[in-house]
Structure to design on (484 residues):
């Protein structure tokens, strides 16, 4: 009997271990533990884009939060996602010009950011630490960002997951938003594996500065010259990480052996979509920002971000913004910006100087227009999504536009994309000039865009008309009480 004196203890320990393993199996995803053979839990739940989800933000003083939104300071709240509660979640407003203009116009529909580990160490939503709720600012279609990410995914460019969400505040309707996966740890793990590299969101502090680092230009070997990159690192970085990235920029600046420093294939696919959607609030545009930079073992990849001002609707900071759809929809694919900008965007310019890369860039345009647009896939995705969100748009109490304006915006977006497809096919086949100079020399050789009005996608006039609607919704929420 002596040799069996530890049996009871062993049995109890085994039972406890089995119970622990059962808990991990049942709730592991909630704790941030993903199965190796599946998508992360959050991708199968909130980011199932086949339906509209429901998020209730439970907060003590919504009016005070809105009043201080421009400060972008976190406050604690409880968030209920599809009926499941998460406590002590960080909430703040987000945005740049959209945040500023929302405040200036006296509006209250801000894009929002929810961070699960802001107050709770290790807090997450089935493995996701942070996501945003996009307000569709200057996007009456509610579809611009969603469709661009769909195009990026089609072209096999790592892009954030997204899905539509009906947002309520303390149980009161607040509006239809687009939930977007924030590119950080979970995004990197999902796209690049557990041993992922470094992620940055280069951004300028002032447009009046040169911002050569945001443009990904090599300056010198001093990390202090690249603060717009390194101060916007998403993960902790070392001196070696800084040295490696700077060396990649140096190689890029030479225009030689670019595959040592750039994921050329993925970058070309990214630029194919970027140029198609005429987004100048981007790396190839006036600002040069709104992208993520991923680096792994000295190789750089550019990743998509922020498309509410795509399809020719960006005008902020431009002295003479282009508004003519005849120019915009026919905009040349080989010089997607003025020469001064292109010369200062080496990630585009130096790749396009290589004949093989330039030819591959054109091949990817053929793939995009033939397999995504001309095949009918685009129209199917657009119209299915429009039908899915229609009732929510009609009931949206903080919408920037009327439902009729929304329908007009969807029709306009569809027409712009199909006309853009025709123009790009003509450019690829040499029937329409594919450079700015060529179009200046042959100004009449373009696709006819009569009847298209870019402003139907969303304009400043919509902001002026939305004030009463949004403030009525705000008053209703302010008189509600946050659940216990």
């Amino acid at each position: 009997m002596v040799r069996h004196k530890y049996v009871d203890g062993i049995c109890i320990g085994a039972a406890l271990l089995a119970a622990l393993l059962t808990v991990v199996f049942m709730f592991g995803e909630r704790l941030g533990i993903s199965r190796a053979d599946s998508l992360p839990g959050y991708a199968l739940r909130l980011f199932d884009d086949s339906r509209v989800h429901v998020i209730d933000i439970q907060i003590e003083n919504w009016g005070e939060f809105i009043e201080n939104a421009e400060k972008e300071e976190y406050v604690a709240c409880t968030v209920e996602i599809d009926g499941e509660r998460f406590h002590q979640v960080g909430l703040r407003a987000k945005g740049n010009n959209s945040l500023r203009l929302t405040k200036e116009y006296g509006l209250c529909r801000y894009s929002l950011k929810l961070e699960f580990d802001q107050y709770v160490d290790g807090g997450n939503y089935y493995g996701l630490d942070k996501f945003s709720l996009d307000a569709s600012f200057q996007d009456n279609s509610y579809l611009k960002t969603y469709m661009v990410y769909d195009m990026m995914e089609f072209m096999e460019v790592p892009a954030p997951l997204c899905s539509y969400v009906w947002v309520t505040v303390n149980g009161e309707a607040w509006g239809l938003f687009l939930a977007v996966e924030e590119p950080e740890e979970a995004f990197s793990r999902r796209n690049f594996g557990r041993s992922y590299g470094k992620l940055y969101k280069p951004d300028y502090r002032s447009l009046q500065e040169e911002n050569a680092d945001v443009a990904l230009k090599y300056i010198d070997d001093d990390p202090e010259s690249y603060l717009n990159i390194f101060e916007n690192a998403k993960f902790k970085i070392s001196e070696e990480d800084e040295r490696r990235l700077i060396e990649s920029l140096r190689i890029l600046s030479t225009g030689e052996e670019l595959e040592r420093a750039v994921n050329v294939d993925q970058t070309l696919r990214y630029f194919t979509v970027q140029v198609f959607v005429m987004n100048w609030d981007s790396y190839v545009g006036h600002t040069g920002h709104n992208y993520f930079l991923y680096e792994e073992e000295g190789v750089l990849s550019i990743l998509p971000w922020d498309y509410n001002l795509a399809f020719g609707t960006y005008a902020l900071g431009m002295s003479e913004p282009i508004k003519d759809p005849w120019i915009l929809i026919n905009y040349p694919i080989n010089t997607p910006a003025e020469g001064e900008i292109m010369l200062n965007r080496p990630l585009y310019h130096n790749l396009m100087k290589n004949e093989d890369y330039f030819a591959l860039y054109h091949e990817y345009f053929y793939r995009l227009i033939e397999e995504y647009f001309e095949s009918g896939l685009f129209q199917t995705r657009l119209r299915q999504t429009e039908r899915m969100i229609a009732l929510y748009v009609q009931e949206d109490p903080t919408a920037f536009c009327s439902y009729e304006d929304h329908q007009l915006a969807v029709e306009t977006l569809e027409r712009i994309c199909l006309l853009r497809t025709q123009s790009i096919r003509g450019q690829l086949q040499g029937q329409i000039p594919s450079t700015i100079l060529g179009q200046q020399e042959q100004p009449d050789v373009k696709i006819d865009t009569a009847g298209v009005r870019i402003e139907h996608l969303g304009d400043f006039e919509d902001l002026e008309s939305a004030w009463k609607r949004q403030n009525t919704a705000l008053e209703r929420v302010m008189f509600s009480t946050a659940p216990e």
In short: The chain has 18 helices and ten strands. The beta strands are 53-58, 75-81, 84-94, 111-115, 130-134, 162-169, 172-181, 198-200, 291-296, 299-304. The two ends are 57 Å apart (CA to CA).
